[in-house]
């Protein structure tokens, strides 16, 4: 085996694999072509049977050689190979697999096992979906505006506008339905499921490695104080930010949570410790961020005041994961946050039982839409008021779309709110819906009783239930809603489009700028619009959900509106550690 590997290294990986494949194909051609030629030329040739028998025997030899090649390749450790060598090895193994399926006469079974989709294909498929949505936002908004601002509108024109709205929404649903069918008809659905699981397993294994060093006393550590002066959602995002910096600096995160305002005994009584082996701040005298030299223990400030700002802050994703993530997911950063929350929010047995009992008692059943209505502390200051009718209009549209695909036994929602009156109001106005929600949780969410165990249990349940739904209708100005959306990414290969926000686009508090890239030129058609050229960076300030977004052109410094479909997202990619040492130590594969 060592002799084989030395020879391979001398010749070169790619050349060796190409040579092996070429030899294999030549043998196959020389074996099969004569058989086919002779069989077609004379079916009465007395030697045909003998030649067929010899061909079958030769094919059996080829199958055996193929298996031997695969065993040799399996014996090659890929842990120390370069990325191009691993890619070449994988490609060769795939070709061997296809050839074996062909020899076995199993071609038809392989047709459905398509190769991985291209990044360009996946990006285009998602862009088509978004553009259909944005086009409908524009058309419906303009028609509604025309109906509402024209006092002397004729009955004929009013009828025509209503017809356009009715037929237009049907057309929009049909287009979205066809795009959804394409997602399954293109043959890549199995790949998406597998790639999602593989990426998650890779990242979770890295988190576990980082958080469980072999020697805690010598490990480099980053200390994060849980008690940031804000609500539960804000505090969760604070811990996520700490974890991002710990991952980026290769430091084990130590979470100081004793005296937590939501639960005095600390995080570890509600969720599992973020480390099984290293929870002590023991080490050299802690210093504040950014530290100096090779200091062992650093205390991290809140994201709002960290200076200098490290490159690992939101909305950055790791460079080594970016190619796979941008192909798989419509919003790679949201997936990245979802993975961190998946690791952090592993429930203790008591918390898991609480959640399971709630699911059973509420009769949680699919299909179901999650609705989060915030009423108390932020409405009128950070967020505008939105009536229940506005939320339910989006819920209705979701179910109208769903019913193109399948029969819905019952339209149901999970309603989370900090005002119990919202639940009773919704039940009175929408008796055709099955509305799941707990008014007692709503009462404990009020500002006066927020920091209590009962309130903590309630918000944990609400976020968990919302994240498990098929679709979210909420306001992204709320951190509760954004966290539910982030966790939702763990239940689907790509849940980036499974929401309807009534106000903001997705954002992360303390983030770096959220930029878009112009893909088409735009000349202002009316006052308040900005000019764009392809390639311009546009700092987005919000989507108005009417076909237009607001932002600043970083080239011209103009601030104003632009057509939402004329930009695409700019993924912020940063060189994080890849943790290759954990695979070298374990002899595994970090791909």
UniProtKB/TrEMBL annotation:
Q: Motif SH3-binding: which ranges?
A: 308-314
What residue ranges carry the coiled-coil annotation?
52-102
List the GO molecular function terms. glycoprotein 6-alpha-L-fucosyltransferase activity
Q: Which residue stretches belong to region Important for donor substrate binding?
A: 374-375
InterPro entries membership: Fut8, Fut8_N_cat, Fut8_SH3, GT23_dom, SH3-like_dom_sf, SH3_domain
GO biological process terms, semicolon-separated: protein N-linked glycosylation
Look up the domain of life of the source: Eukaryota
GT23 domain residues are 218-502
Membrane-topology annotation of the record: Single-pass type II membrane protein
Disulphide bridges, residue numbers = 216-278, 224-242, 230-234, 474-481
| The enzyme's E.C. designation | 2.4.1.68
Which residue ranges does the record assign to the SH3 domain? 511-572
Give the record's keywords alphabetically.
Coiled coil, Disulfide bond, Glycosyltransferase, Golgi apparatus, Membrane, SH3 domain, Signal-anchor, Transferase, Transmembrane, Transmembrane helix
Q: Where in the cell is it found?
A: Golgi apparatus, Golgi stack membrane
Tell me which GO cellular component terms the UniProt record holds: Golgi cisterna membrane
Annotated TM spans: 16-36
Q: What is its main location?
A: Golgi
Named in its record, the pathway it takes part in is: Protein modification; protein glycosylation
**Recorded family membership:** Belongs to the glycosyltransferase 23 family.
What is its biological role? Answer: Catalyzes the addition of fucose in alpha 1-6 linkage to the first GlcNAc residue, next to the peptide chains in N-glycans.
Name of the molecule in the record: Alpha-(1,6)-fucosyltransferase
Task: Please give the organism.
Answer: Aquatica leii
């Amino acid at each position: 085996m060592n002799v084989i590997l030395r020879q391979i290294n001398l010749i070169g990986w790619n050349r060796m694999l190409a040579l092996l494949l070429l030899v294999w194909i030549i043998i196959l051609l020389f074996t099969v072509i004569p058989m086919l030629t002779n069989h077609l030329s004379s079916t009465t040739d007395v030697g045909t049977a003998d030649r067929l028998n010899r061909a079958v025997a030769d094919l059996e030899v080829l199958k055996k050689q193929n298996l031997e090649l695969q065993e040799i390749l399996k014996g090659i450790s890929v842990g120390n190979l370069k990325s191009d060598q691993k890619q070449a090895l994988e490609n060769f193994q795939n070709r061997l697999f296809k050839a074996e399926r062909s020899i076995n006469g199993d071609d038809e079974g392989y047709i459905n096992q398509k190769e991985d989709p291209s990044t360009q294909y996946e990006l285009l498929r998602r862009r088509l979906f978004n553009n259909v949505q944005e086009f409908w936002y524009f058309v419906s908004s303009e028609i509604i505006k025309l109906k509402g601002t024209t006092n002397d509108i004729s009955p004929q024109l009013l009828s025509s506008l209503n017809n356009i709205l009715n037929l237009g929404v049907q057309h929009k649903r049909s287009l979205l339905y066809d795009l959804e069918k394409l997602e399954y008809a293109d043959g890549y659905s199995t790949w998406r499921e597998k790639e999602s699981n593989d990426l998650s397993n890779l990242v979770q294994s890295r988190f576990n490695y980082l958080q469980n060093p072999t020697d805690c006393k010598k490990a480099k550590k980053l200390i994060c104080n849980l008690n940031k002066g804000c609500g539960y959602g804000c505090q969760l995002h604070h811990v996520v930010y700490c974890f991002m910096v710990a991952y980026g600096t290769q430091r084990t995160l130590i979470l100081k949570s004793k005296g937590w305002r939501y639960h005095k005994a600390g995080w570890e009584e509600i969720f599992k410790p973020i480390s099984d082996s290293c929870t002590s701040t023991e080490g050299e005298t802690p210093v504040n961020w950014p530290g100096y030299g090779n200091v062992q223990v650093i205390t991290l400030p809140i994201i709002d005041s960290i200076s200098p700002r490290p490159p690992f802050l939101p909305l950055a994703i790791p460079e080594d994961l970016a190619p796979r993530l941008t192909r798989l997911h419509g919003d790679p950063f949201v997936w990245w946050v979802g993975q961190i929350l998946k690791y952090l929010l592993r429930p203790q047995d008591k918390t898991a039982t609480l959640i399971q009992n709630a699911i059973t008692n509420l009769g949680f059943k699919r299909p179901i839409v999650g609705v989060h209505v915030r009423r108390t502390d932020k409405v009128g200051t950070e967020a505008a008021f939105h009536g229940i009718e506005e939320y339910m209009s989006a819920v209705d549209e979701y179910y109208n779309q769903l019913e193109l695909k399948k029969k819905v036994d019952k339209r149901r929602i999970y309603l989370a709110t900090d005002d119990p009156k919202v639940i009773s109001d919704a039940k009175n106005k929408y008796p055709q819906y099955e509305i799941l929600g707990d008014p007692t949780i709503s009462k404990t969410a009020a500002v006066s009783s927020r920091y209590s165990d009962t309130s903590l249990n309630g918000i944990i349940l609400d976020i968990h239930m919302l994240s498990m739904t098929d679709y979210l209708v909420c306001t992204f100005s709320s951190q509760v809603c954004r966290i539910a959306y982030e966790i939702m990414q763990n239940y689907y290969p790509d849940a980036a489009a499974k929401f309807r926000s009534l106000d903001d686009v997705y954002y992360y508090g303390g983030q770096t700028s959220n930029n878009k890239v112009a893909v088409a030129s735009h000349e202002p058609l009316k006052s308040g619009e900005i000019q764009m050229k392809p390639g311009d960076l546009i700092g987005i300030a919000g989507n108005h959900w009417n076909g237009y977004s607001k932002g600043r052109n970083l080239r011209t410094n103009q601030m104003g509106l632009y057509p939402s479909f004329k930009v695409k997202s700019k993924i912020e990619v940063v060189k994080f550690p890849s943790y290759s040492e954990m695979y070298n130590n374990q002899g595994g594969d970090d791909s």
